[in-house]
Design brief:
alpha+beta, Hepatocyte Growth Factor, 5-stranded antiparallel β-sheet, 10 strands
C-alpha cells in the first residue's frame, strides 16, 4: 500500500512539471556564461528540464558531467560559450494573449500600480492582468526571478533597460451599415378606358 501511494504521489508531481519533450532540443558543447541561479544533480541532461521548470528563476540550463552529472540553472542565456561535453536547453516560452500589444523592450510605465505577481516569463503576465480588475497593462522585470507589475494607466512612460511591457488592445465593435429599403414602383393595370357616356345622334 505504501508503494502504491508513493507511486501515485510521484505521478502527481510529474504532471505539474514541464516534460523533457516540451523543452527545446539539447545543444551539445554549448554553455551560457553567468546568470546562475541554482543547480541539481542529474545523471541525464534530459532530466534538467523538469528541474528547471520547478525552479522560480530558471529559464535555461547547462548540464555537465561534474560530480556524475549536474544541471546548472540560469535566468537567461545571452552569452554563449563553447564547453566540450556540456549540453544546454531551454524552457518553452509561453505565448502572449492576442488581446495585448507586442512586448516592448526597455519600456516602463512609472506608477499606477495595482498589484504584482511572480512570473519567470513576461508573456505570462497577460493572464495575471486579465484576472485583475482594472488592469490595462503590465511591466515585467527580472526582480526576484521575474515580477509582473500590473497597472491601470498608460501614463508615465519611461525607458528602463531590461524591462518588458505590453498593454491591452482596445476591442472594436464593427457596426453593420444601415440597410436601405427600396420601395417598388406602382404597377398600372392594362385595360381599355371606358367613357361614361355614348355619342348621341344629331337632331334633323
Amino acid at each position: 500500500m505504501v508503494t502504491a501511494r508513493a507511486a501515485l504521489l510521484g505521478l502527481a508531481l510529474l504532471s505539474t512539471r514541464t516534460n523533457a519533450d516540451e523543452c527545446t532540443n539539447l545543444i551539445d558543447h554549448v554553455d551560457y556564461k553567468g546568470h546562475d541561479v541554482g543547480s541539481t544533480a542529474q545523471p541525464d541532461a534530459a532530466d534538467c528540464c523538469g528541474d528547471c521548470s520547478d525552479h522560480d528563476s530558471c529559464k535555461v540550463w547547462v548540464w555537465t558531467k561534474y560530480h556524475g552529472g549536474t544541471c546548472w540553472f540560469k535566468s537567461q542565456g545571452t552569452e554563449v560559450t563553447a564547453y566540450h561535453g556540456a549540453k544546454s536547453g531551454a524552457l518553452p516560452t509561453p505565448t502572449l494573449s492576442p488581446r495585448y500589444s507586442e512586448l516592448a523592450d526597455n519600456v516602463d510605465y512609472y506608477g499606477n500600480d495595482i498589484s504584482t505577481t511572480k512570473q519567470k516569463f513576461a508573456e505570462s503576465c497577460g493572464e495575471d492582468c486579465d484576472n485583475t480588475d482594472g488592469c490595462q497593462l503590465f511591466v515585467w522585470t527580472s526582480h526576484e526571478g521575474g515580477t509582473c507589475w500590473l497597472k491601470h494607466s498608460h501614463s508615465g512612460q519611461t525607458d528602463v533597460y531590461g524591462v518588458k511591457s505590453a498593454y491591452r488592445v482596445p476591442t472594436t465593435t464593427v457596426t453593420p451599415a444601415p440597410t436601405t429599403m427600396v420601395n417598388p414602383a406602382p404597377t398600372t393595370r392594362a385595360g381599355r378606358l371606358k367613357h361614361s357616356h355614348s355619342k348621341r345622334a344629331k337632331p334633323t
